[in-house]
């Protein structure tokens, strides 16, 4: 192994820079050359590749986003596109690749390994915490802090105005961000993708609690469940209190990574290089019960399920 490359792909996440830095510096320490691929698989396809040195990654551990840029590149699903990408990697003399991203990015990495014998290692980079084979993804804790900070601010204004606030949180089909934000933000209601949503039940619960003397309420809900602006209108019409909906959106994807994400990303980046040096390929890195682990990428995506944290939801319900 002489030359490795690193790319970030899919939605960016705070801590990706720390992961790139760790890959670059631990590879250089082992005497390897490192290349940065800009804008994910799209940049690989268009040959946006540059050699990196230790100063290329100076001062980035504190920065959100990814200095390499990221992209969603659906064309990578085509075998001929992947073949061209493998050829480009080989034309630079690159003999292994570290991919930092979500499960779509993982699938791309595995296919490069399977179809072209190209050694790839995946690192879990997404705020959603929805990747199997790891307890935490890079970026999740920072996004959680951002969501809780927003909820705290909404609590102030919703309390002053005796309003009901609905906060829509990212996470796709995974409730981790929503439920944890609900507990930390002391929210009254958490609506998550893993549990069937009944608008009627929610409204009845709110009606009862306002009849019992409640003056304001905070509802957190994962994206893609319902139109939160319509939900606000429906609640207001029935309960009588003014109701506002706030979609936190991409605010949750930005910002300086928290210490947890910086450390996680640094450990995972260094581990990826270790695995490549041991000859591992088609593997994805995780952290489980505080230990760094690695799994076959396809097995992780197809067979491992991230458990729904029902216990957290129960705690959030108990404490409101
Ligand atoms: O996967 C990360 C994520 O932020 C999801 O939470 C969200 O559904 C999606 O990406 C948004 O994607 P985009 O940035 O392409 O709009």
From TrEMBL:
It catalyses: beta-D-fructose 6-phosphate + ATP = beta-D-fructose 1,6-bisphosphate + ADP + H(+). GO terms for biological process: canonical glycolysis; fructose 1,6-bisphosphate metabolic process; fructose 6-phosphate metabolic process. It comes from the Bacteria. Substrate binds at residues 126-128, 163, 170-172, 223, 244, 250-253. ADP binds at residues 21-25, 54-59, 155, 186-188, 214-216. It is found in: Cytoplasm. GO terms for molecular function: 6-phosphofructokinase activity; AMP binding; ATP binding; fructose-6-phosphate binding; identical protein binding; metal ion binding; monosaccharide binding. InterPro entries: ATP_PFK (IPR022953), ATP_PFK_prok-type (IPR012003), PFKA_ATP_prok (IPR012828), Phosphofructokinase_CS (IPR015912), Phosphofructokinase_dom (IPR000023), PKF_sf (IPR035966). Mg(2+) binds at residue 103. It is an enzyme of class 2 (transferase). The keyword Kinase applies. CDD domains: Bacterial_PFK. Its EC number is 2.7.1.11. Its cofactor is Mg(2+). The active site is at 128 (proton acceptor). ATP binds at residues 11, 72-73, 102-105. Allosterically activated by ADP and other diphosphonucleosides, and allosterically inhibited by phosphoenolpyruvate. Keywords: Allosteric enzyme, ATP-binding, Cytoplasm, Glycolysis, Kinase, Magnesium, Metal-binding, Nucleotide-binding, Transferase. NCBIfam families: PFKA_ATP (TIGR02482), PRK03202.1 (NF002872). Belongs to the phosphofructokinase type A (PFKA) family. ATP-dependent PFK group I subfamily. Prokaryotic clade 'B1' sub-subfamily. Homotetramer. Catalyzes the phosphorylation of D-fructose 6-phosphate to fructose 1,6-bisphosphate by ATP, the first committing step of glycolysis. This is ATP-dependent 6-phosphofructokinase.
